[in-house]
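New to this. Help decode both lines:
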Amino acid sequence: MGPPAPVAACRTAVREALRDLVGQPNPRVLVAVSGGADSLALLAASCFVGPRLGVSVGAVTVDHGLQHGSLERARRVAAHASALGADPVSVWHVTVDGPGGPEAAARRARYRALRTQARAARADAVLLAHSRDDQAETVLLGLARGSGSRSLAGMGVAVGLFRRPLLGLPRETLVAAAGAAAASDDGLTPWDDPHNSDPAYLRARVRHQVLPVLEAEIGPGVAAALARTAELLRADADALDEWAEREAVRLVQADCVDAVGLSALPRAVRTRVLRQAALQAGSAPSDLTAAHVRTMDGFVMGEVSGLSLDLPGRVRATRVGGRLRLSRDVPG
């Protein structure tokens, strides 16, 4: 008999995600594992599939120190990963602080640790256990914030170092797969992070209050529909980004943008070129807002009066004839 259907689905998804590494010299991936059901399902599938494809599988667990006993729990997760054959296995303790609240701070700290361990282990990729339901939550959060298409496109299956093999699978499949693994002799009972159900956290409210209401009032399948929307929007956003990159090569020279040439393009492309030009001039991505970009676009289209606009990073945008000049001449 073959494995249970949820286990088989996770293995198939991981196999597809690792396909491009087969035949590469000494391929290695790390699995980010928290001890929750989703990440345990990913770990089990990766440790089964990886060796059969000739891909080494390691694991890393990050202790955020936000709950009592978190370090001991992280050590149990690491021991379980080692028992499954993962190598290397590491536990990282991080300090959660900084702007944006605890959710954002924990995410930044976690991704820093994952990148650091990936470099140390010379890993080709880090596998993350986000599910289709996580994708739906991300889209709803983007909608609530009034974000653009790139944000509404949600999480990518593969973005740089990070890969999300299970993004097309519903959370219930991952929970069932983890349950099947826990039922075996060497299984580890999944840990349910209390933050995931704490209404103090926005994502928890979306997960336990908003999505269930949508499912009840609109009908089943809302999460799947939101995930499909993200996939479609990501394809559109990728195409627009590629178009904007080509136009930026033509229209952005040193610290100047050809405003006349740019004005002939659709707004979605213009704003991308302007954002890229501002970042190139020295503005930080985290500080450059959509309002900044809209005002620059108003200069280009002659819809905004005024001589200049101060941008983050001491950058000043000034319309001079047929050009938009971006210079770092704003006093500190």
